[in-house]
Amino acid sequence: MANANPPDGGGSVRHRVALPPKEGLVKDFKSWGQEMFFHDAPLRDFKDQTASQKVLLGIQAVFPIVGWAREYNLRKLRGDVISGLTIASLCIPQDIGYAKLANLDPKYGLYSSFAPPLVYAGMGSSRDIAIGPVAVVSLLLGTLCRAVIDPVDEPEDYLRLAFTATFFSGIFQVALGFLRLGFLIDFLSHAAVVGFMGGAAITISLQQLKGFLGIKDFTKKTDIVSVMESVFKAARHGWNWQTIVIGASFLTFILVAKFIGKKNRKLFWVPAIAPLISVIISTFFVFITRADKQGVQIVKHIDQGINPISASKIFFSGKYLTEGIRIGGIAGMVALTEAVAIARTFAAMKDYQIDGNKEMIALGTMNVVGSLTSCYIATGSFSRSAVNYMAGCQTAVSNIVMSIVVAMTLLFITPLFKYTPNAILAAIIISAVLGLIDIDAAVLIWKIDKLDFLACMGAFFGVVFISVEIGLLIAVAISFAKILLQVTRPRTTILGKLPGTDVYRNIYQYPEATKIPGILIIRVDSAIYFSNSNYIRERSLRWLREEEEDAKEAGMPAIKFVIIEMSPVIDIDTSGIHSIEELHKSLEKKDIQLILANPGPAVTEKFHASKFAEEIGEKNIYLTVAQAVADCSPKLAEQQA
């Protein structure tokens, strides 16, 4: 509670900065823990409920389907069936191609669109996300696994490593959600993700040149220099013109279909079914012309039947266990970042809430189950989720419908894919990943924040010119470097008074703001910790030196008061207090008084606990800058008299 002083000369009442009531150590830790891990108050719905209702709410928290299934009706079913059939027509050809990105047989792509979506439908909270393999994660998994085991020389061990990585990616995701550590994925900034995704899209497209041009001898590296060198080496005798005609024709068809869908949202189904139509027509064409005899590479045999159990194929010991954990952690983090971003995007568009931690548990569980049923890492697909949304999906039942269609395909239709040309799969993948190159976002990042743009370009060029994992590492490193830079070098600004007001603002943002003669007002725009405390002290003294020089040149009064505006300083640690004490002593030697304005409750409490409030004097801690200036001005006049 603020204490009131007698009115000052202007007739106003000065309120002192209030010392917050002591909470106690246990209550402090409890409050910190709640804000850190339970800021969304996940147990609020359980309050004042009967035991049976709490049990039901507990089941519903783990399996959201229990909640929304009670309100399900035929109208919602109609929307879900239409959207489920639509995304199934898109996912089937994509899954076959994405499996090749992961260096796996096409059937594993289809497997990964059967079991994981069923698990997610029961546990996920997003109504719009479409689950299955995605291009970036497939490429990342394939690149990381191939660096450990050659998929051609040791296909069985390679497959086992992929399943092991999938299992541990799921464990990693579940652990993050269960321990409520979802905030960790936010360390990969939006700018870094934009650059990484753009670079991955270029890399994936370049990798498709093997199938698009009909090249048999192709580099295993992913950097642009190695890929283009491999392409041009094969130009004289390695390209197949029939393959190029098939790939170019259907890529044009798919891109035109996408253009039509963008121009008229009612025709969303046109780009959705274009890949499947392309597969059907190209497969029929190759079959009747026997183009495979002319060098056109085809998918060949795909095993019939739904997912076999693969629990025995996971490495739970041996030399590949640690590699599986490492690869699973990296790929799982990227998959998680992509899925949660997609879920949040569509939740905002439809105005409903998703729980990020529950999403992680759902995504992790589906990948653990997937690894036990011959699937590799699945996550949310933006292209399929967008189609799902535009097709009018109402709930996660659209994922169930898609899974049923994929299961029917696995049971009855896979033999028909035998003559599907690899060129059409390359065309489908290229058309799908082009949307990951977001030039508008990169331009906007450049306009807003140059450091963010550096992170974006670092990730982009790292992926394109070195490798996917190095690009990801660069993205994370630059994101962390930016955080460290902002923490260790916070902004400090000089404030001036806006004419006709008692408002004090940054003089560089508001040139009309005027400095108060003899008083230096500094605002610190950050918490003060051990990492930045010395910088803040040194920067404040530098501001003082510069202002003293300017005042001397202009014949203005010497600085006698330094006011630090502490509204943005949300916290301070021991090093921070020690640094402020040193600043106070340095100013005392210059016969300058340090004054603090509007410290927050946490800062005020620590000032009193450390006895610094007594050292500086409570009379020198003010509620506002205006109050501090009003009190300092008469004192300044007396000193100058």
From TrEMBL:
<keyword id="KW-0813">Transport</keyword>
<feature type="transmembrane region" description="Helical">
    <location>
        <begin position="267"/>
        <end position="288"/>
    </location>
</feature>
<dbReference type="GO" id="GO:0015293">
    <property type="term" value="F:symporter activity"/>
</dbReference>
<dbReference type="GO" id="GO:0016020">
    <property type="term" value="C:membrane"/>
</dbReference>
<dbReference type="InterPro" id="IPR036513">
    <property type="entry name" value="STAS_dom_sf"/>
</dbReference>
<dbReference type="InterPro" id="IPR011547">
    <property type="entry name" value="SLC26A/SulP_dom"/>
</dbReference>
<feature type="transmembrane region" description="Helical">
    <location>
        <begin position="191"/>
        <end position="209"/>
    </location>
</feature>
<feature type="transmembrane region" description="Helical">
    <location>
        <begin position="325"/>
        <end position="348"/>
    </location>
</feature>
<dbReference type="Pfam" id="PF00916">
    <property type="entry name" value="Sulfate_transp"/>
</dbReference>
<dbReference type="InterPro" id="IPR001902">
    <property type="entry name" value="SLC26A/SulP_fam"/>
</dbReference>
<dbReference type="GO" id="GO:0008271">
    <property type="term" value="F:secondary active sulfate transmembrane transporter activity"/>
</dbReference>
<feature type="transmembrane region" description="Helical">
    <location>
        <begin position="239"/>
        <end position="260"/>
    </location>
</feature>
<dbReference type="InterPro" id="IPR018045">
    <property type="entry name" value="S04_transporter_CS"/>
</dbReference>
<feature type="transmembrane region" description="Helical">
    <location>
        <begin position="129"/>
        <end position="149"/>
    </location>
</feature>
<protein>
    <recommendedName>
        <fullName>STAS domain-containing protein</fullName>
    </recommendedName>
</protein>
<feature type="domain" description="STAS">
    <location>
        <begin position="509"/>
        <end position="632"/>
    </location>
</feature>
<keyword id="KW-0769">Symport</keyword>
<feature type="transmembrane region" description="Helical">
    <location>
        <begin position="458"/>
        <end position="481"/>
    </location>
</feature>
<keyword id="KW-1133">Transmembrane helix</keyword>
<feature type="transmembrane region" description="Helical">
    <location>
        <begin position="360"/>
        <end position="379"/>
    </location>
</feature>
<keyword id="KW-0812">Transmembrane</keyword>
<feature type="transmembrane region" description="Helical">
    <location>
        <begin position="161"/>
        <end position="179"/>
    </location>
</feature>
<keyword id="KW-0764">Sulfate transport</keyword>
<feature type="transmembrane region" description="Helical">
    <location>
        <begin position="424"/>
        <end position="446"/>
    </location>
</feature>
<dbReference type="Pfam" id="PF01740">
    <property type="entry name" value="STAS"/>
</dbReference>
<keyword id="KW-0472">Membrane</keyword>
<feature type="transmembrane region" description="Helical">
    <location>
        <begin position="399"/>
        <end position="417"/>
    </location>
</feature>
<dbReference type="InterPro" id="IPR002645">
    <property type="entry name" value="STAS_dom"/>
</dbReference>
